[in-house]
Amino acid sequence: MKLSATVTVLGLLPLALAESILVTFPSGTPDSVVDQAKQSVKDAGGKITHNYTLLKGFAADTKADSVQQLSTQFAAYNPTVEKDMTVTIQ
């Protein structure tokens, strides 16, 4: 029983370490670059949670260390990578 609980906790650990992020690119960025960025997130063990149509970008759940890699890998296209959070206006 104890081993089962340990395995369950370890199985959930990657989810706990994941960050929800938004990735957007300038409007002139080729679609192929956005697709490569999505694939990069998936290759790092992340999950695309939403594809944007009005913006060139997507939302994803990924590990914190892959966020910096994404920014560096696509720096030539000036992506904006930010933590997904609730914003309120008063």
Automatic annotation (TrEMBL):
Keywords associated with the record: Signal
One example GO MF annotation: endopeptidase inhibitor activity
SUPFAM superfamilies xrefs: Protease propeptides/inhibitors (SSF54897)
Signal peptide range in chain numbering: 1-18
BP GO terms, sorted: vacuole fusion, non-autophagic
Superkingdom field: Eukaryota
Xref: PANTHER family: INHIBITOR I9 DOMAIN-CONTAINING PROTEIN (PTHR28288:SF1), PROTEASE B INHIBITOR 2 (PTHR28288)
Family: Belongs to the protease inhibitor I9 family.
Protein's name according to its UniProt entry: Inhibitor I9 domain-containing protein
Organism whose genome encodes this protein: Aspergillus neoniger (strain CBS 115656)
